[in-house]
Design goal:
Number of helices: 13
Strand order of the largest sheet: 3-2-1-4-5-6-7-8
Strand content: 5-15%
Largest sheet: 8 strands, mixed
Radius of gyration: 21 Å
Order of helices and strands: EHEHHEEHEHEEHEHHHHHHH
Shape: globular
CATH architecture of one domain: 3-Layer(aba) Sandwich
CATH class of one domain: Alpha Beta
CATH topology of one domain: Rossmann fold
Length: 320
């Protein structure tokens, strides 16, 4: 039974994962080699507790009780007694391999070890794990991890079935929505779909079919509007599979499938317009810092989460 969670890496994803568990009363140890990163994470705990409560998210614990559930450390040994450890450091294969080797050596036999990666192969990350070989899996959260419900799960050939089931149940008890990725493929599921969409969108811009602004308008008010209430396959059901078959046959050979670069991105990178973090990307972000824009985005996402999951809304809170 999972009673204590360890999270290795206190950056954007690690903080979000730890926050998700702590607000649900799970004892959580957040580890990072950087005192500065841990200090930022501590501050964000207080900030996001206020944001969640202000938006009407139901947190049954007091702030003091939530903060008592989380501890911060720079020592990997402090997570060794955890029942479930999620590695969420930068996408650096040697670093991840080193962390898993160390965890394999210091953790109790019952500990479940998981990685939050989506771009690196779990089999490579865990290739030197021996003692916990049957207790290793992948749990891929989506940014911001404390708001977006989805977690993609992937097991290795050796992963114990009971371990997989225990992690799945634990995550769902903590208000996450899980899917099983049945094969180890680059990007897993959601990121592959998102990347395919980005490639086609950028191609339409590059080829002069649509302006950047109209492209986003089309996505937000068309497919994105429908996706907010339905999955793709259900959309296909409502459209009629016979109609979709014709559409796919007609467009499949015409949509972008080549490996190409996109000047819409390249010229912005060259000029230093990298997105919100530099104040300019496809859009301008004036007058506020990166964190301010992130909190503005997260506030909108929390409201969307609560509209889709009313059970998470505090009784008597403002309706949307």
């Amino acid at each position: 039974m999972i009673k204590q969670v360890g999270v290795v890496g206190a950056g954007t994803m690690g903080f979000g994962i730890a926050f998700q568990f702590a607000i649900n009363g799970v004892k959580t140890v957040l580890c990072d080699m950087s005192d500065d990163t841990l200090s930022v994470a501590k501050d964000k705990f207080v900030i996001y507790l206020k944001i969640f409560r202000d938006q009407g998210y139901s947190i049954t614990l007091s702030d003091k009780e939530v903060l008592s559930c989380i501890s911060f450390t720079t020592s990997l040994n402090d997570v060794a007694d955890s029942d479930f450890i999620i590695e969420s450091v930068s996408e650096n294969l040697p670093l991840k391999q080193k962390i898993f080797e160390e965890l394999d050596a210091i953790c109790k036999p019952e500990t479940i070890l998981a990685s939050n990666t989506s771009s690196l192969r779990l089999s490579e990350i865990t290739k030197n794990v021996e003692k916990h070989k049957d207790r290793v899996m992948l749990t891929h959260f989506f940014n911001p991890a404390h708001i977006v419900p989805l977690v993609e799960l992937l097991r290795t050939k050796e992963t114990n079935e009971e371990v997989f089931a225990e992690v799945k149940a634990f995550l769902e008890e903590n208000n996450k929505t899980t899917i099983e990725v049945k094969k180890e493929v680059s990007g897993l599921v959601a990121n592959r779909i998102q990347t395919a969409m980005a490639r086609e969108a950028l191609s339409l811009i590059e080829d002069g079919v649509v302006s950047e602004n109209d492209l986003d308008t089309a996505i937000f008010n068309g497919p994105g509007f429908r996706f907010s209430s339905s999955g793709l396959l259900k959309i296909m059901d409502f459209g009629g599979l016979d109609i979709w078959d014709i559409t796919i046959r007609e467009l499949q050979s015409k949509i972008e499938s080549t490996d190409r670069s996109y000047s819409a991105i390249a010229r912005r990178i060259e000029s230093g317009a990298l997105g919100v973090k530099t104040g300019k990307g496809f859009y301008n972000y004036p007058g506020k810092g990166f964190d301010d824009y992130v909190m503005e985005r997260d506030t909108d996402l929390i409201q969307h989460l609560l509209s889709r999951n009313p059970k998470l809304r505090e009784k008597g809170a403002m309706k949307i």
